[in-house]
Amino acid sequence: MVAASAVEFEPLRAEHGQALHALVASCKPLDENSLYCNLLQASHFGASSMGAWQQASLGLEPQLIGSITGYRLPNDPHTLFVWQVAVDKQARGQGLGLQLLSHLLAHLLTNQSQTPVTHLQTSITTNNTASWALFKRFAKQLAAPTRTDVLFEHSAHFGGSAPTEHVLTVGPIAPGALANSTHASAVDAQEHANSRAMPELSPG
After folding, report:
1. Which CATH fold topology does 4-195 show?
2. By the 8 A CB rule, do 69 and 41 touch?
3. What is the pLDDT of residues 22-68, one digit of tens each?
4. Angle (deg, nearest 10), helices 129-142 and 96-110
5. Angle at the Cα of 137 (from 116 to 147), degrees rounded to 5?
C-alpha cells in the first residue's frame, strides 16, 4: 500500500518519458507504445497529462506509480481525451486513478491562458469493467452526465483484430464541480484502501 502523503502529482515532461514507458509496460494488458511515442506524450502533450510520484527514501529517485496521458481534441479544445491510465500494481485499490483524474482536470481548469475544459472523453472496450467503473465514478463525483457511442468498430475499423472501442463522454462539467468532488474523492480513496478494489487500468 502507498501512503497518500507520500504521493505527489505533477504534469508530465520529456524527462519522464522513460518512466512512463516502464510503467505502462508493467500494467498488463494495457497497449504498449514505443519509447519514442511515450516521449512525445510526455513532452508535446505533457500539459494535458499527469503523473503520480511516490516519494522515495533518502538518496533514491521518486518512482512513477500512476499516470494519465491525454490531449485536447484538435477540432474541439474544450474536450480532453484521455488516452491511457496506468496504475502500478502496488498502488491499486487506493483510488489513485480518481486522484489522477482530479489533479489533471484541476491543472487544466486553473490554467486561465487556455480554453477551459468542459468535457472529458475516453475510449473503452466492453469488457474493461475497471475503466467503466473509474470514469463513471468520476462523472458521478462531478455530477456530470455521460454518453456512450461507438468510436472504432471491431470489423469496420480494426478488421476483426481488436474489440470495438466505445467512446465515453463526461460533461458538460459545471463550474465548481471539481471543487465539490474533492471531499468525495478523499472518501472514495479511503474506501478503496479498505476494500482493495479492482485495479484501475483504463483505455488502451
Report:
1. Aminopeptidase (3.40.630)
2. yes
3. 999 999 888 898 999 999 999 999 999 999 999 876 667 889 999 99
4. 50
5. 65
Q: Which residues pair with 53 in a beta bridge?
A: 8, 64
pTM of the model: 0.82
Q: How far is CA 83 from CA 61, 71, 100, 179, 186, in A?
A: 26, 8, 13, 24, 24
- What are the domain boundaries of the chain? 4-195
* Residues 6+ positions from 2 with CB-CB distance below 8 Å: 54, 65, 90, 91, 94, 96
Closest C-alpha among 133, 200, 202, 140 to residue 165? 202
C-alpha grid cell, residue 197? 478494489
Phi first, then psi, for residue 147 (nearest 5°) are -145, 140
Output phi, psi for 113, to 5 deg. Answer: -80, -10
